Amino acid sequence: MQQKPDISDSSAERAVEQMDLPEAQAELERLAALLSQADTAYFRDDAPVMSDADYDSLRQRNAAIEARFPQLIRPDSPGQRVGAAPAEGFGKIRHARRMLSLANAFSDEDVADFVNGIRRFLNLDPQTPLFFTAEPKIDGLSLSLRYEAGRLVHAATRGDGEIGEDVTANARTIADIPQSLADAPDVLEVRGEVYMTHSDFAALNAKQAGIGGKVFANPRNAAAGSLRQLDAEITRQRPLRFFAYAWGALSAPLAATQAGALARLEALGFVPNPLLRKCESLTDLFDTYTAIAAQRAELGYDIDGVVYKLDDLTLQARLGLRSTTPRWAIAHKFPAERAWTLLEGIDIQVGRTGALSPVARLTPVTVGGVVVSNATLHNEDYIAGRDSRGEAIRDGRDIRIGDWVEIYRAGDVIPKIRDIDPARRPDTAIPYQMPDHCPECGSPALREPGESVRRCTGGMICPAQAVERLKHFVSRAAFDIEGLGAKQVESFWRDGWIASPRDIFTLKDRFGPGQPRQLKNREGWGEKSAQKLFDAIDAKRRIPLARFLFALGLRHVGETSAAMLASHYGSWDALRAAMVEAADPDSPAHGELLSIDGVGPVMAQTLISGFAAERAEINALAKLLEIEPASESIADSPVAGKTIVFTGTLERMTRAEAKARAEALGAKVAGSVSARTDLLVAGPGAGSKAKKAADLGVEVIDEDQWLALTGAS
């Protein structure tokens, strides 16, 4: 059994930008050894020693170091090779044309760079249409089949790209591989992927277990191990399948396009993937990726991404090849779904409302192409193995420092802990106790009845709350002051330049021209950048009431509820007066507040107490601003309270304008279609979102109908 390589060397944690020449040289040596071991285990021995995510992460790191230190590129660089040397025991076949690997994309930006790179290389005008094919990337074993005069003469694995293993006898036993072809070029090399379906894999493992044979870890290993049997009769008994996706040597062209060539292969008796699509734009590529990803669990076989190829074969030839990959194709990888790592500690973060949030500090691990070193732990109940109702989660297993934990990225964004491995828990691990005092200011941290979190009682004397409130105040959905982001707020607060929101609007008076200390003299600033910030602050002195309410950062008051309150009271003066009067629970103002749709007793009390506690600060801030009254009657809006999704290309307004218009009318704009979606606005190029909306019965309208509905046509 192969030993899993140690990829957690401390040198791997050092940023590439911080490396000096000796460090880079040592790290490249380490990476070359690790990746060579991984390639041999995966491509030759069918016994992977690391996850795909770990492997991709190491390859990316190697490429980054080589890009910064090109003089250190090694003769055995992982970036200069494909696969691994063929195994002993098989004959060797030299490929007439190299079998290459594919470059990887891990984000939409990577795909956009790929397409733009093609345009730059070919010197194409941005308006020149480019067509691509998109198909699932099968997680199997690459195979090349050579036909001469219509007959299969040999089959070879990829090997190291130049020389592969002769598995001809075994390939002949696979039903999807024709033994002879009619009306084919005299020389035809068909390339594709050998794989095994989930159901066949389960049946094979059950059979193997019953006879005491080898049980495989996954379908890819089972397929590769079955194809590499020295006895072809064993391969014949294994349920192997084959998808054709490319070709090697040819005596005559198959077609003028990638899609046409695959159609020709299908006519000859091969099986291309049925999910192959032709795409005309980046939007088409992304929609196809999303659609294939959504079907991933139902396909019945493993895929790990979507492959995009330039459709025009003449353009493919002009683009040519790199040392190990073609310039005209790329694999858009799916995020890794899960990964295991060590929980090194639990940190407590204090938010703007005083909530104490536990955060897992992890040994860095790659999940979905992203290195994760922290993950949310929600609250103390979640750590203890209970949900909000007190019922057991993870079968009641608690989470402790020192545990091995399974990480996943919820919605491919927020890292979370799914489970722990009790078998690997150290004897020294003890149950975690949530602190009962704020780690930032030392104030008592109380958990009120019915609440799932503890909160610091220090209020604005707590530095964490003060800073987080300021960050929220300048966030995109609040004041959104250009040039004043989270880093600048932290810096100004740390040096005592800003202690509360109103200090932002007196910054110029205190640190502008003519003052003893000036912003232009601060490190990282100059006269132009300082004046630009002052101008940006002045530009936000006029602000809609709803944004002002949201910016105050009161508990339970989000964007939607702030818009509802602004619409109901109309002006700042009316709302402020109502909050003072509503402090009396028997007053008409209190009853009016509770009558607003979406305002319950908890939110009402938060508003009343929040305004009371910070009345002087809020009033002082308001005097520095011009707070616009609510100009729209959201209550009468045809889209108030509805969830809307925009897709495709809008021709009469930008996506940002459409979103702003919807939100101004009291709607919530979402990024994806779900059962909670009320309306989909679809422009040209709408893809998977439109299909999903149709499947869910969501109303779909075009841009003209949207403009008419909202009175903007």
Detailed description of the structure:
With 713 residues, the protein is an alpha+beta fold. Helices cover 35% and strands 19% of the residues. The chain contains 25 helices and 24 strands. The strands form seven sheets. Strands 2-11-10-3-9 form a five-stranded mixed sheet. Helix 1 runs antiparallel to helix 2 (52-68) and helix 17 packs across helix 18 (559-569). The N and C termini lie far apart (69 Å).
Helix content: 25-40%
Report strand order across the widest sheet. 2-11-10-3-9
Number of domains: 6
Count, helices: 25
| CATH first level of the largest domain | Alpha Beta
The fraction of residues assigned to DSSP E strands is 15-25%
List strands and helices in order, with pairings:
Layout: H1 21-44, H2 52-68, E1 92-94, E2 104-105, H3 108-122, E3 132-138, E4 141-148, E5 151-157, E6 163-165, H4 168-171, E7 187-195, H5 198-210, H6 219-227, H7 232-236, E8 241-250, H8 258-267, E9 277-279, H9 282-295, E10 303-310, H10 313-319, E11 329-333, E12 339-350, E13 356-367, E14 370-376, H11 380-384, E15 404-410, E16 414-420, E17 445-446, E18 455-456, H12 463-473, H13 486-494, H14 501-504, H15 507-511, H16 527-539, E19 542-544, H17 545-551, H18 559-569, H19 572-581, H20 588-595, H21 601-613, H22 615-623, E20 626-628, E21 643-647, H23 655-664, E22 668-670, E23 679-682, H24 688-696, E24 699-701, H25 703-709
Parallel strand pairs: 2-11, 19-20, 21-22, 21-23, 23-24
Antiparallel strand pairs: 1-6, 3-9, 3-10, 4-5, 4-7, 7-8, 10-11, 12-13, 12-15, 13-14, 15-16, 17-18
Helix pairs in contact: 1-2, 17-18
